[in-house]
Predict the 3D structure of the following.
Amino acid sequence: MSEQSASGASVNVSARSESGRVRPHNEDSVLARFPLFLVADGMGGHFRGDLASSTAIRVIDEAIAPDMPTTPEAVLAAVRAANRVIRRSIGGSGIGVSGTTLTGLVATVADNGDRHWMVLNVGDSRVYRWNGRSLTQLTVDHSLVQELMDAGLLTADQASRHPERSTITRALGVNDGLEIDAWLLPYDGTHTFLICSDGVTKELETAELELILASHRDDGSRSLADAIVEAALEAGGRDNTTAVVVEGARTGEGELVSTGTGARDLGELGDTRPRSVT
């Protein structure tokens, strides 16, 4: 675990990524440095997936300055730039269509100086928030089974066993146009976030993740990200497995706002759906 500080905020971060017990190559890529905490899960097989996810992370890393909050507009511009670079570099390479999910958390500052955590998502990697008692999924999967669930045609249990459960409906690198889910959460106060690829969520139920988060004691040798990834590997490790845990603390009070067309009160996040930005 590393501690990263910036302008009154203390952020403890742990990250780990493994290829898993079945796949010989890791197509996941991760970025965990203030203000960017991102996970990308490449698709397209071996070289193509690895190249897509690593390209997304590289382009965004180069676009956003380290050690200080950025703006929501800069984040969205960097993600769109990553999409264009993947389209150009991989689409013109003769190795076929490829793409990557992208999800994560970014420390941002508005024009009036207010700070927020920006959550963003494209695909089916996920961001969760842990309040010390329960784990809430903040992102909404862009997947075929999620659409079927939203339409009332599948239950969550059926979706977990559906043969097309890995089919995603949005990804960087697939189309010139890109629809990004993005919204803002309070920066002030104490927050713990889990960012992970589906190699974690395919193997561990929410209750199992909650048990790990509640019972973990950091002795300096095994971080929360270590504990989560190791549990996923022990449960089968059938996919690339990546976890980033961000624990942030800052004094003060913040308001919840949306980055979409018009602001809304997201309440306790029980029914939160992010705004899509094109």
In short: Helices lie at 46-63, 72-91, 144-150, 156-161, 198-201, 206-215, 224-234.
